[in-house]
């Protein structure tokens, strides 16, 4: 991979191709012209994951091309990665190649970094990690100034912390987020800031209370809470719920209730189909929900959750999969119209793009 590919011209061209694809996909839908939020052409990824390939006495970073899982190709630099990743890559590789205890049976390395300069490195092995490994790893982690995790089957050794704390600027305020290793976080922090600002700007006049599904670590929840009296947020992954609660405290935001539930379970709770002990301290009837915010995984919304969204005056739908967004908007269009549509280039130089839609109930 060379710097050549990541020029501003190449960036503009790949983005143009994506916006054209979105125009074509949504040609049969009533959507306004999308606002397009760009990324930097290099240094945009806060996370990266590489295989470690061993050849004789030398080990190097490698990746597989899609569909070719036998022979990986060597990676010497990673222009997409944040500067911390690019600084750490050669330094860590030198350490790996210099120490057989660290190198042997190492098959994957993951980097998680922040705009604020923190880094967490995860080393994944096909061997049991012992105290000798830990002593060697501790020396390396101190030299590199990072936290480090060693993983193997049923084993996790944490040197330092198993999270980083990211700082994002939204609407003139700084929000700090715990981001746990192996939990979901948005990969492109600068584009994430643009998504957060867009969601905040488009819900400023909503009033009342917000219900949010798929809240992750509270990424959108925290800045959106400033626009509402109260927020009810739900998320399936335990570690993300834990971080979302931690992040509320870290940022002094206290008008949010968070419950660990799937969107399917939360629908049942709203309809009083089932009672949930996880909601025993939360009175759902006391909320005055005007607005729903959803940011589902690639599969999009299940039919019942889609129907739930249609109960509210404003729907904010953020999606990492235009195909499922297109499918779900077809259904929601019966009751709501798209007032704003945005493209966020979270994943430059891949065919992926993040979309956001603001829908208002038809009058
Ligand atoms: C695209 S991420 C968005 C997270 C968050 N909004 C953010 O910006 O970081 C989708 C989230 O949905 C969660 N999730 C996946 N399936 C779910 C389900 N059936 N019900 C609730 N949450 C789910 C995942 O754990 C993940 O945190």
Automatic annotation (TrEMBL):
Sorted UniProt keywords: Methyltransferase, S-adenosyl-L-methionine, Transferase, tRNA processing
Class of enzymatic activity (EC top level): transferase
Binding residues annotated for S-adenosyl-L-methionine, in chain numbering: 186, 214, 219, 235, 295
GO molecular function, one term: tRNA (uracil(54)-C5)-methyltransferase activity, S-adenosyl methionine-dependent
Chain segments annotated as coiled-coil in the UniProt record: none
Enzyme nomenclature, EC number: 2.1.1.35
Xref: InterPro entries: MeTrfase_TrmA_AS, SAM-dependent_MTases_sf, TrmA_MeTrfase, U5_MeTrfase_fam
One BP annotation, GO: methylation
Active-site residues per Swiss-Prot or TrEMBL entry: 320 (nucleophile), 320, 354 (proton acceptor)
UniProt xrefs under Pfam families: tRNA_U5-meth_tr
The reaction(s) this protein catalyses: uridine(54) in tRNA + S-adenosyl-L-methionine = 5-methyluridine(54) in tRNA + S-adenosyl-L-homocysteine + H(+); uridine(341) in tmRNA + S-adenosyl-L-methionine = 5-methyluridine(341) in tmRNA + S-adenosyl-L-homocysteine + H(+)
Role description: Dual-specificity methyltransferase that catalyzes the formation of 5-methyluridine at position 54 (m5U54) in all tRNAs, and that of position 341 (m5U341) in tmRNA (transfer-mRNA).
Family per record: Belongs to the class I-like SAM-binding methyltransferase superfamily. RNA M5U methyltransferase family. TrmA subfamily.
Record's protein name: tRNA/tmRNA (uracil-C(5))-methyltransferase
Gene that encodes the chain: trmA
């Amino acid at each position: 991979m060379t710097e050549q590919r990541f020029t501003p011209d190449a960036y503009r061209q790949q983005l143009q191709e994506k916006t054209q694809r979105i125009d074509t996909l949504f040609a049969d839908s009533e959507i306004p012209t999308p606002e397009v939020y760009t990324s930097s052409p290099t240094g945009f990824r806060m996370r990266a994951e590489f295989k470690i390939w061993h050849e004789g006495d030398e080990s190097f970073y490698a990746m597989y091309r899609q569909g070719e899982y036998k022979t990986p190709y060597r990676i010497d630099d990673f222009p997409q990665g944040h500067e911390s990743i690019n600084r750490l890559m050669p330094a860590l590789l030198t350490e790996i190649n210099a120490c057989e205890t660290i190198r042997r049976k190492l098959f994957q390395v993951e980097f998680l970094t922040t705009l604020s300069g923190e880094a967490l490195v995860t080393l994944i092995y096909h061997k049991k990690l012992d105290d000798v490994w830990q002593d060697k790893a501790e020396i390396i982690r101190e030299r590199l100034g990072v936290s480090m995790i060693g993983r193997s089957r049923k084993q996790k050794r944490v040197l330092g912390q198993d999270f980083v704390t990211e700082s994002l600027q939204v609407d003139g305020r700084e929000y700090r987020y715990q981001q746990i290793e192996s939990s979901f976080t948005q990969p492109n922090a600068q584009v994430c800031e643009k998504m957060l600002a867009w969601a905040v700007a488009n819900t400023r006049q909503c009033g009342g209370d917000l219900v949010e599904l798929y809240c992750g670590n509270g990424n959108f929840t925290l800045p959106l809470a400033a626009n509402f009296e109260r927020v009810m947020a739900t998320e399936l992954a335990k570690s993300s719920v834990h971080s979302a609660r931690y992040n509320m405290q870290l940022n002094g935001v206290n008008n949010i209730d968070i419950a660990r539930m799937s969107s399917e379970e939360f629908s049942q709770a709203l309809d009083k189909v089932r009672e949930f002990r996880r909601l025993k301290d939360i009175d759902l009837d006391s909320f005055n929900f005007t607005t729903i915010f959803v940011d589902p995984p690639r599969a999009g919304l299940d039919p019942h959750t889609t129907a739930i969204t249609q109960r509210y005056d404003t729907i904010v739908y953020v999606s990492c999969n235009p195909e499922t967004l297109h499918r779900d908007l077809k259904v929601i269009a019966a009751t709501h119209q798209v007032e704003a549509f945005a493209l966020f280039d979270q994943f430059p130089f891949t065919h992926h793009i993040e979309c956001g839609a603001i829908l208002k109930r038809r009058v």
